[in-house]
Amino acid sequence: MALIIQNIEKILSLTDEEKELILSKIELKKYKAKTVILHAGEICKHSYFVKSGILRSFNINDNIVEHVLQFACEDWWIGDMYSLISQKPGNLFIEVNEDAEVALLSKENQEELYHQIPKLERFFRILTENSLVAHQERLMDNLSLSAEERFEKFCSKYPTLIQKVPQKQIASYIGVTPEFFSKMKAKMLKK
Questions:
Q1: Which pLDDT score, from 0 to 100, does residue 132 have?
Q2: Is the separation of the CB atoms in 73 and 112 below 8 Å?
Q3: pTM of the predicted structure, to 2 decimals
Q4: Which residue pairs, CB below 8 angstroms and at least 24 apart, start in 149-155?
Q5: Residue 29, class by beta-carbon neighbours within 10 Å (0-12 exposed, 13-18 middle, 19+ buried)?
Q6: Any idea what the CATH number is for the domain that residue 7 is in?
Q7: Strand runs labelled E in 18-112
Q8: In a domain? residue 67
């Protein structure tokens, strides 16, 4: 579990006792690909830290079309922030794309850690702020960039995912149909 400690220590330093306390509050689970670990309509009770593998969050609209919100690779956090913070039913699914080992930090344990290690509030505040900035940037990109430009940004942000994630999920993430994505990618490769 050293990876999660390294992730936290990118922002703040921890004593050995604090590290042990954090690790004692985390549950480690292994999931097979295609496992849905959170369903829309459920209350998100955990923050998920990806130790290995790939997870994605998405929702499904009334026309049964998936909209991928986020991918999370090794050393990334993922969750349904709305549901986790409000403790109301969320609208996101979180699915395992590739066999994964995931650290689960329950909301209750996270709150306990805030009391026992107050500086962890700063860590999670920074994570939340970074998430807000990324989502705002993505929204602005969807409003102002072409599909090709959004795909290029995706390639920059997630260089390891291009070969690991189905093209229809990449298409969904950048906001185009799989058919348009295939044509666009073929056109880009010819350049």
A1: 92
A2: no
A3: 0.91
A4: 150/174, 150/175, 151/181, 151/184, 151/185, 151/188
A5: middle
A6: 2.60.120.10
A7: 26-31, 36-38, 46-60, 66-72, 77-78, 93-106
A8: yes
